[in-house]
């Protein structure tokens, strides 16, 4: 949605030739993310911050446990269908993701799709933090409604749409 709005404001004219400075129409992929299972939500509510170094960290972790308990009460069984989009504006590619990625995941998108990529979070909806397969239990993973591995699914789609709008579909 974000990419479509931006592209609508920057229409391509017949005299505009494709190239590195071209404005490309947006590409979009829908990604189906599985909700946390009942067991995962229960495990999140039982997580502890025993290794937390300070009181503030323990408080934030406890807040995450409370949010996880609220997730457990709502028990969503159906998957989340989210949109990942990219649009090329001149020499820059904007990639819109529907949540918050940990820094390393955003950097993975840039590493795979090119240095002129800007990852825009909180776009096309918001699912909170998107947990990776190996993300340890933290506030961010406790409050996420989706399963570990969701981040990798979004990253793969982001790289795909970014490469598509830059003309590097096979890399």
Automatic annotation (TrEMBL):
<protein>
    <submittedName>
        <fullName>Uncharacterized protein</fullName>
    </submittedName>
</protein>
């Amino acid at each position: 949605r974000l990419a479509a709005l931006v592209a609508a404001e920057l229409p391509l004219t017949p005299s505009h030739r494709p190239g590195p400075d071209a404005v490309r129409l947006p590409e979009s992929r829908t990604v189906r993310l599985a909700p946390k299972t009942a067991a995962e939500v229960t495990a999140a509510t039982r997580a502890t911050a025993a290794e937390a170094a300070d009181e503030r960290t323990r408080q934030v972790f406890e807040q995450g446990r409370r949010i996880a308990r609220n997730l457990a009460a709502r028990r969503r069984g159906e998957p989340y269908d989210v949109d990942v989009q990219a649009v090329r504006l001149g020499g820059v590619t904007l990639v819109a993701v529907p949540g918050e990625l940990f820094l390393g995941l955003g950097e993975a998108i840039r590493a795979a799709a090119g240095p002129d990529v800007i990852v825009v979070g909180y776009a096309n909806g918001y699912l909170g933090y998107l947990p990776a397969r190996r993300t340890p239990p933290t506030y961010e993973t406790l409050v996420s409604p989706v399963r570990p591995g969701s981040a990798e699914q979004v990253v793969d789609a982001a790289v795909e749409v970014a490469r598509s709008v830059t003309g590097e579909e096979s890399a």
